[in-house]
Each structure stands twice: as structure tokens, then as C-alpha cells.
Recover the amino acids of this structure.
């Protein structure tokens, strides 16, 4: 669950059994984009998850660079056949995170033979040109200024569907403005999400809390404090933030 | 339409507008509301709930960090301020975010008195916002109970 600070998604082994047509088929709908979101802030994880779900993406949200690498299997010594099944179409990560920054995560991903082709997008609340340039030079596809809005995510989604890599490795060109592709005819929200937002409510099986009850209920279990390392002080930001983006075609090195 | 529902809707509309006009909320809150739908009717409430949890935790961290007899580690205070600034920005809590920006500058200037005062303001501000938003949700509940639908409020 997103709340416990760990991997808010089905475990990889569970993912293997979720799919169409049995064990030999890809675990995820080939037409659905799978996004790995990395952010140490729980609030931001929930929001980005929602934004991505609305744009018909499957989302896995983790709270640190280490967990992202763990999820991808980059840090894993054992070569796993499961890695072939693990389809990640986009990685979106916060820049300022304790432990491993988004920039460091970006570098590790670009160093990995299995995942260097996956587009990586950096999010930051600070509009620092040197930071943006550094990330883009290291191979980031795009840089989003927080707070991230639906329009930002929709733009990402559009350029992603132009070059969706199918699990069999072929690049497939799709119309840029086509509606989100899924095999199921249902709207994005009706498909069961791989993660739940909160342990207390929003399960369809338990009676939902009203908004008043949700906000005024006593604190849930304390948010995991493990990753509360001291952040380095961030550089000054310019007074009028400009959304600086640079589009690079995925696939060009 | 039931006149009670219509009255409540008007009051609700005015209430929401006043929250924006008084600077409690900004367009990111509007954005969050637009992400809510029948499939996820409690999305805003859930995000806000997590945000207020964050406030409690981070304000606690800041208070502890400032309470060190001897040298205060301002970078530690600043780290929590940064996180709160990010969270408040993500939910559209405009006043809280504004205070965090000021707070951050005070941390960088290692202004102890300033930090302590600012922390008190942050504490008051997030609690005030929480009370306002609880009222907002209460309005929504009353409207629905009166048979009305919650109006979309056009901020512009």
C-alpha cells in the first residue's frame, strides 16, 4: 500500500499471475502503459498515482530510489527470468529525496542494460536551471515542475504512446491524439488498481468513510521515519518559475 | 429543487469562493477537485487527510529540532520545512506553503527567534485550514442530505 512507505503494488510474483490468458502471456495488458513513480512524500505519491491512473496508466509507486532499483531488479544480483516480464514504460521520479536523489536514480537507470531505454522524467518543486540541465544531460526525457498537474501527465502520456515498446520488443507508432489504449472497454477507474490508497477505507468491501470522517479520524499508524535523512539545503530558485521542458525522442542516445 | 438544498448550495459556493479569496487555497486545490469523480468520490478527502498527518509529523520534527539546547541544526529544521512546503504545494494549501517559503529563508539565515515564531504560525495555519475544510465537507454532506448535488464552483 502506498501508505506504508514500501512498494505500493502487487509483488512481482503476484504480478506474474495477473494477466490475460495464463502464465505464458505478459503479466500486464500490452496496451496499458506501466509507470513506476518514485517520491518520498506520501501526499505526492497519492496525487501522482491518481494523475497517472486517470490517464489510463498502471502505476507502481515507491518511496525511494533504493526501492525503485529493488523493484526493477537493477540492484539484484540474481538474474531473474521474471525481469523479461517486468514491463516498465516510464519512470517518473522526484528530484529531492533523502538517501538517493532522483538524479542519482536516473544515472543508475541509464547505466543499466535492461532499463536504460526506459524514459525517465524528473519532478521538482524548484526551478533550478542547472539542475534541469544536469538531468536532461544525464538522459532524462523531461522535467516537470511541481505541483504536477493533469495536463503535464497527459502530455507525457501522449508522447509515450507514440513509441510504446511492446513486450516483444517492437516499437509501435500510435496516433498522438488517440484516446488511451486499453483492451478493456471500461473507464480507467473501474479496473482494479494494483494498490490501495488507504488501509482504512476506500475498499469496495468495507463501508466508505465520509470525507468528514476521513479528515477528522485519529492518526493512522505513523508514517515510516526510516528515510528521514537530512536533505542538503537546496539552491535558490528564481522568483518566477518557468516550466522548462526539453523533449527528446526516446530511443536516441 | 428543494429550497433548502438551493440555499445550502449558494452558501457552499460563497464559502468556497471566500477560501480562495482569503488565500487559503490556490489553483492546485482546484486541480485536485477535478481529479475526483464518481469512481473516486473521496479522493480529495483522502489526500487532505494525509496532508494533515504530514503537518502533524513535520511540525513535530521542526519543534524538536528547534528545541535543542545548545546548537540548533537548522538544516534539519529546513529539511522538514522543505517537505511541508512540497506537500502543501501539492494540495493547494496556499497560506501554509507561503509560510514554509518564509520559514525556509529563516532557516537558511539561522534566525532562531524567527524560526520559532514562524513555526507557531505554521501550526496555527494548518489547523485553521483543517477546520475550514472540515466545514466545507460538512456543507457537502448537508447538501447531499437535502437532496442536492454538490456544485462545481468556478473560481475565475
Amino acid at each position: 500500500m502506498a501508505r506504508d512507505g514500501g512498494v505500493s503494488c502487487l509483488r512481482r510474483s503476484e504480478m506474474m499471475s495477473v494477466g490475460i490468458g495464463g502464465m505464458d502471456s505478459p503479466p500486464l495488458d500490452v496496451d496499458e502503459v506501466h509507470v513506476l513513480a518514485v517520491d518520498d512524500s506520501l501526499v505526492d505519491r497519492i496525487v501522482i498515482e491518481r494523475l497517472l491512473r486517470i490517464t489510463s496508466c498502471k502505476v507502481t509507486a515507491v518511496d525511494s530510489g533504493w526501492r525503485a532499483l529493488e523493484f526493477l531488479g537493477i540492484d539484484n544480483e540474481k538474474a531473474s527470468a521474471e525481469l523479461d516480464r517486468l514491463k516498465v514504460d516510464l519512470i517518473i521520479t522526484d528530484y529531492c529525496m533523502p538517501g538517493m536523489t532522483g538524479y542519482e536514480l536516473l544515472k543508475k537507470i541509464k547505466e543499466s542494460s535492461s532499463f536504460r531505454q526506459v524514459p525517465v522524467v524528473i519532478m521538482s518543486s524548484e526551478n533550478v536551471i542547472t539542475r534541469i540541465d544536469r538531468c536532461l544531460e544525464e538522459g532524462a526525457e523531461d522535467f516537470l515542475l511541481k505541483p504536477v498537474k493533469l495536463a503535464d501527465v497527459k502530455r507525457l502520456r501522449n508522447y509515450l504512446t507514440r513509441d510504446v515498446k511492446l513486450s516483444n520488443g517492437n516499437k509501435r507508432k500510435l496516433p498522438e491524439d488517440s484516446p488511451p489504449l486499453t483492451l478493456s472497454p471500461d473507464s480507467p477507474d473501474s479496473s482494479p488498481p494494483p494498490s490501495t490508497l488507504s488501509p482504512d477505507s476506500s475498499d469496495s468491501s468495507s463501508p466508505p468513510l465520509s470525507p468528514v470522517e476521513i479528515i477528522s479520524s485519529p492518526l493512522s499508524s505513523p508514517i515510516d521515519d526510516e528515510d528521514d535523512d537530512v536533505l542538503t539545503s537546496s539552491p535558490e530558485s528564481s522568483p518566477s518559475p518557468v516550466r522548462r521542458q526539453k523533449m527528446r525522442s526516446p530511443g536516441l542516445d | 429543487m428543494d429550497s433548502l438544498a438551493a440555499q445550502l448550495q449558494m452558501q457552499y459556493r460563497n464559502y468556497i469562493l471566500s477560501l480562495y479569496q482569503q488565500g487559503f487555497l490556490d489553483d492546485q486545490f482546484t486541480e485536485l477537485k477535478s481529479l475526483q469523480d464518481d469512481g473516486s468520490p473521496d479522493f480529495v478527502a483522502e489526500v487532505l487527510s494525509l496532508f494533515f498527518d504530514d503537518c502533524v509529523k513535520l511540525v513535530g520534527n521542526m519543534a524538536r529540532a528547534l528545541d535543542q539546547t545548545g546548537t540548533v541544526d537548522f538544516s534539519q529544521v529546513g529539511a522538514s520545512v522543505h517537505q511541508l512546503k512540497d506537500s502543501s504545494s501539492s494540495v493547494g494549501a496556499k497560506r501554509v506553503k507561503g509560510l514554509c517559503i518564509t520559514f525556509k529563508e529563516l532557516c537558511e539565515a539561522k534566525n532562531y527567534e524567527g524560526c520559532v515564531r514562524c513555526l507557531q504560525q505554521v501550526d496555527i495555519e494548518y489547523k485553521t485550514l483543517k477546520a475550514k475544510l472540515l466545514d466545507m465537507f460538512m456543507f457537502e454532506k448537508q447538501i447531499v442530505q437535502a437532496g442536492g448535488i454538490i456544485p462545481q464552483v468556478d473560481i475565475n
User: Anything to note?
Assistant: The mean pLDDT of chain B is 94. Helices of chain B lie at 3-21, 27-34, 43-66, 74-91, 94-108, 112-145. DSSP finds six helices and no strands in chain B. Chain B touches chain A through 47 residues (CB under 8 Å).
